[in-house]
Amino acid sequence: MQLTVWTYEGPPHVGAMRIAASMRGVHLVLHAPQGDTYADLLFTMIERRASRPPVTYTTFQARDLGSDTAEIFKTACREAVDRFQPDAVLVGASCTAELLQDNPGGLADALGLAIPVVTLELPSYQKKENWGAAETFYRLVRTFAPAPAGRAEPRAPAPVCNILGPTSLGFRHRDDTVEVRRLVESLGITVNVVAPLGAGIADLARLPQAAFNIVLYPEIAGTAADWLMRHHGQPSVTVPPIGVLACGDFVAAVAAAAGLDSESLQELRSRLPWYSRSIDSTYLTGKRVFIFGDATHAIAAARIAADELGFTVCGLGSYSREFAREVRAAAALHGIEALISDDHLAVEDAIVAAQPELVLGTQMERHVAKRLRIPCAVISAPTHVQDFPARYSPQMGAEGANVIFDSWVHPLMMGLEEHLLQMFRDDFEFNDAAEPSHLPQSAMGNAAPKAPSLPLAEEATPPLAPVEASLRWAEEAESELRKIPFLVRGKARRNTEKFAAEQGLVNITVETLYDAKAHFSR
């Protein structure tokens, strides 16, 4: 067993909470100890909900373990139904309560409640948050959109669809839903139901009325969509419209499912293609990017980086083990091996080894990149309060491509600006004490003293990246290396270390740095 301080996903009961918090008229009764109520803060503090999630905890304590904890659950369940009057109640156990084996489903059935009870089996020691959300949504769909008798016949194409997958606490799910719905309706297609976000029990019962399903996040809705395909004959569009090229594929797939002519549809408008064709974009062509996140966003980000912005994908990975095959296939397109791990330290080691010039990841990778002084953009959950902006900020659709353009390119360009400020801060014209150079010499008076500054080697900055144990960088060489623009600094470092290794050198000095430069300039 490995002790984890940070984790990419919570236990599966947090996924169940996300589904309950997304829907109307659904309440979750969770058999859990007092300490497990921390999960409320994910919704009130990070997502900034105006109210607590619709969850009742049994909150048993240590002293209750010697008594009847099953009775505690039955009392909590009965009181929750009487107080909140939900249309349906979910019952399950947290990771701690699972050890008690109190069987919340059987206890709730014994109460004879007047509303439907959906029992959740959440194996907390084998599965995680996204699986818990997918399982909860699947159980709700299966309960309230039951399979008809007989064999399901394939649906004929028709312009009516469901949008499945967006949830509470999802990365930009709220704005993605608005953007995708706007895009779909602009094609002349009617949106029947959006679920689970904003849906009620009656909406789930209407799911079979659509001709096809749009699965925005397979991690959440993939299981339910497969069940709807098998038992109601509804095909699914599983292309997430993240990026300009993916949006085009999405529109074509949706048009085919709806029986429309995709060639006559209006072209998406985004500023990202304009930038990719501009002169400015050539400054970033070939820059090395490391990508990590959930499967949906990581795979989409790799395609945008390589095919739309001209970056070189030097690392790709995901913590979504259920989608490891898809991530590995995407990594193979870039000639690299995928990293499938939920150990943030292993991800950090992979970033150091890849020496990227941009990191696209979760909040955990943002902390790593900040420590290594590498530009970074957050593309996936797990999220922080800053990933729920008050402004409209989708990742999907045409506007999503604009948001991605801003959030990816700006860190690189601002990093270049920071380097230029650093490079010229001691220049006689540009330091803080310098007089305006455009004024006559007589008006300038005596030359201002040079602004004091610390030598680069003495600055309290972390090393650029760990080096091999056999190589040691002298302070003067590290200082000289930092004068190189960050856009090419990584390449200069790699070339210098390669040159030193070939020459059998152990210590890298300033002379070694310039010898390597001369060697690779031939």
From TrEMBL:
Keywords: 4Fe-4S, ATP-binding, Bacteriochlorophyll biosynthesis, Chlorophyll biosynthesis, Iron, Iron-sulfur, Metal-binding, Nucleotide-binding, Oxidoreductase, Photosynthesis
Record field: catalytic activity: chlorophyllide a + oxidized 2[4Fe-4S]-[ferredoxin] + 2 ADP + 2 phosphate = protochlorophyllide a + reduced 2[4Fe-4S]-[ferredoxin] + 2 ATP + 2 H2O
Keyword check for Secreted: no
UniProt binding sites for [4Fe-4S] cluster: D36
InterPro entries, sorted: ChlB/BchB/BchZ, LI-POR_suB-like_C, Nase/OxRdtase_comp1, P-CP_red_C, Protochl_reductB, Protochlorophyllide_Rdtase
Residues noted as binding substrate in the record, renumbered to the chain: G415, L416
UniProt pathway: Porphyrin-containing compound metabolism; bacteriochlorophyll biosynthesis (light-independent)
Gene3D superfamilies: 1.20.89.20, Nitrogenase molybdenum iron protein domain, Proto-chlorophyllide reductase 57 kD subunit B
Domain of life the protein comes from: Bacteria
Region (Disordered): 435-460
Active site positions, chain numbering: D280
Cofactor binding remark: Binds 1 [4Fe-4S] cluster per heterodimer. The cluster is bound at the heterodimer interface by residues from both subunits.
EC number: 1.3.7.7
A GO term for molecular function: oxidoreductase activity, acting on the CH-CH group of donors, iron-sulfur protein as acceptor
CC cofactor: [4Fe-4S] cluster
Low complexity composition bias: residue spans: 451-460
Entry keyword Ubl conjugation: no
Function: Component of the dark-operative protochlorophyllide reductase (DPOR) that uses Mg-ATP and reduced ferredoxin to reduce ring D of protochlorophyllide (Pchlide) to form chlorophyllide a (Chlide). This reaction is light-independent. The NB-protein (BchN-BchB) is the catalytic component of the complex.
Name under which the protein is recorded: Light-independent protochlorophyllide reductase subunit B
Species lineage: Bacteria, Pseudomonadati, Pseudomonadota, Alphaproteobacteria, Hyphomicrobiales
